[in-house]
Structure formats: structure tokens, C-alpha cells
Design a protein that fits this description.
This protein has 186 residues and is an alpha+beta fold. The chain folds into two domains: 89 residues, 2-Layer Sandwich (Alpha-Beta Plaits); 93 residues, Alpha-Beta Plaits, CATH 3.30.70.1560. The chain is built from three helices and eleven strands. 32% of the residues are buried. One of its GO terms (molecular function) is catalytic activity, acting on RNA. Keywords: Isomerase. Pfam families: PseudoU_synth_2 (PF00849).
Length: 186
């Protein structure tokens, strides 16, 4: 039986158990004291939300490898209000410096009832913001942020809500839930 940990990673926490930088940055070891589990993928320090950890290398690879096309859904607060053409551009895929992205599933999202972020996002009174739900099937470095910037709507806050069928539902920031995966199979 493989162990799978669903962790709601807070803003500012590194997606690793140690920090070799010599600074006092927060890591997974500040929240999870389970030997033998490792992150299945990454989530940037300035992003929040679902991070999966497991003790089975094959399961870890299956979750993280884009070849298996496991969708990752992000709730993205962006600057401004993207028009239908901008959303369609995301849906078709955008050109980034490292090549075109795969198409994304995208739709507007009502202001989600999320926990407050510490520190709060920057707010500009003259520029509105809006929320999008974006599902991607690849995982390039800072991909969602770069995609929204490419359509002229920089990301203000990024929360990964789900990976495959696993969601953050009922998991508070800094908390985790363990589930058993029979034989390490999805």
C-alpha cells in the first residue's frame, strides 16, 4: 500500500524538506514529519495549494510526469479582466520563450472563498482583478504565471486546487491528509 499525502502548501514554503541556502526559509519539514515521503512535482515558493507527496517512486513519477497527462487545476487571480479573446488564447495555448504550451482548460471563476494570504496580494484601486480556473497537463517552470502574463494579465495569486481527482477540499493551509493508494496505482 503506497502512502499519499495531500498537503495544502502555504505561501512562502519551499516544496522540499531542506533549504541549502543558509537562510531561515520555511520548508516541508516544518509541517510534515513522515519519513520516506517525497514531493511528486513542485509548487513555487510564491504559490499555494495542493502538493502531493508519496513514498512510492513509480507513483511519484506517474503523478509528476506530463506524459501521463494528469490535469492540474489552478485558481488564478489575475490583474484586470481578461476578455473572451484572451481566454481563448489561453485555451489554444500560448507561445512562451521555451516554446508553445499545450491548450489549457480555462473559465472564469467567481471569487473563491479562500483563506487570507500572508502577506496579502498587492491591490491597485484603479485596476480590477478577476479569478480564473485553469487546468494544464504539463508543468513547466512558472508556467501558469508566464501564460497569464503572455495575454497581458499578470498573476497576483496562484492556488493549485487539484491534481487529477485529488483536491484541497477540507484541507486548511499548512495541514495535510494521508490516503492509501492500493499497490501504488492511480
Amino acid at each position: 500500500m503506497a502512502r499519499l499525502i495531500l498537503f495544502n502548501k502555504p505561501f512562502g514554503v519551499l516544496s522540499q524538506f531542506t533549504d541549502g541556502s543558509g537562510t531561515a526559509r520555511s520548508t516541508l519539514s516544518d509541517f510534515i514529519d513522515i519519513p520516506g515521503v517525497y514531493p511528486a512535482g513542485r509548487l513555487d515558493r510564491d504559490s499555494e495549494g495542493l502538493l502531493l507527496l508519496c513514498d512510492d517512486g513509480r507513483l511519484q513519477a506517474r503523478i509528476a510526469d506530463p506524459r501521463f497527462k494528469m490535469g492540474k487545476t489552478y485558481w488564478v487571480q489575475v490583474e484586470g479582466e481578461p476578455d473572451p479573446a484572451a481566454l481563448q488564447h489561453l485555451a489554444r495555448g500560448v507561445q512562451l520563450k521555451d516554446g508553445p504550451t499545450r491548450p489549457a482548460e480555462i473559465h472564469r471563476l467567481a471569487d473563491p472563498a479562500l483563506w487570507p494570504r500572508d502577506p496579502p496580494i498587492r491591490v491597485r484601486k484603479s485596476v480590477p482583478d478577476s479569478w480564473l480556473a485553469m487546468t494544464i497537463h504539463e508543468g513547466r517552470n512558472r508556467q501558469v504565471r508566464r501564460m497569464t502574463a503572455a495575454i497581458g494579465h499578470p498573476t497576483l495569486r496562484l492556488v493549485r486546487w487539484s491534481v487529477g481527482d485529488w483536491t484541497l477540499d477540507g484541507i486548511a493551509p499548512g495541514q495535510w491528509r494521508e490516503i492509501a493508494v492500493p499497490g501504488g496505482r492511480l
